[in-house]
Amino acid sequence: MSKVPFDTLKMAMALKGAGWTQVQAEGITEAFAEALTEIREAKSAETKPVEMKSVEASRKMIETKASLEVRLSKIDLDLYLLKWLAGGTFGISFVLLLIALRH
C-alpha cells in the first residue's frame, strides 16, 4: 500500500491542541491517513482500466488503418488493371472497326 504524503505529526499535534488525548489524536490521525491512502488507491484503480481501454482502442485503430491501407492498395491495383484492360479493349475495337469499314 503506497502512503499518501501527509503530515501526521502536524495533524496529531493540532488534535492535541484542540483538547484530544495523545492516544485519540494518534488514532484519528492514523485512521485519516489510511482512509486517504485507500481513496488514492481506489482512484488509481479507476483510472487504470480507462488507460488500458485507451491503449486497446489505439491498437485497434492502428490495426484498422493498416487493414484499410491494404484494401485500398488492392483497389488501386484493380483500377490500374481495369484502366489498361478498358484501354486495350477500346484499341482493339477501334482497329476492328477500321478494318470493317475498309471492306
Short description:
This protein has 103 residues and is mainly α.
Strands, helices and their partners?
Layout: H1 8-17, H2 22-102
Structure annotation, total helices: 2
Low-confidence stretches: none
Q: Report the sheet-strand fraction.
A: under 5%
Work out the count of structural domains: 1
> How would a crystallographer describe the biggest sheet?
none
Encode the helix/strand succession as letters: HH
Give the class from helix and strand content and strand pairing.
Answer: mainly alpha
Q: What is the percent of helical residues?
A: over 70%
Provide the gyration radius in Å.
38 Å
Distance, first to last CA: 98 Å
Mean pLDDT: 84
Name the shape in a single word. Answer: rod-shaped
Please provide the count of β strands. 0
Task: Provide a descriptive summary of the structure in words.
With 103 residues, this protein is mainly α. It has one domain. 88% of the residues lie in helices and 0% in strands. The chain contains two helices and no strands. It has helices at residues 8-17, 22-102. α1 (8-17) crosses α2 (22-102). It starts with 7 loop residues before the first helix and ends with a helix.
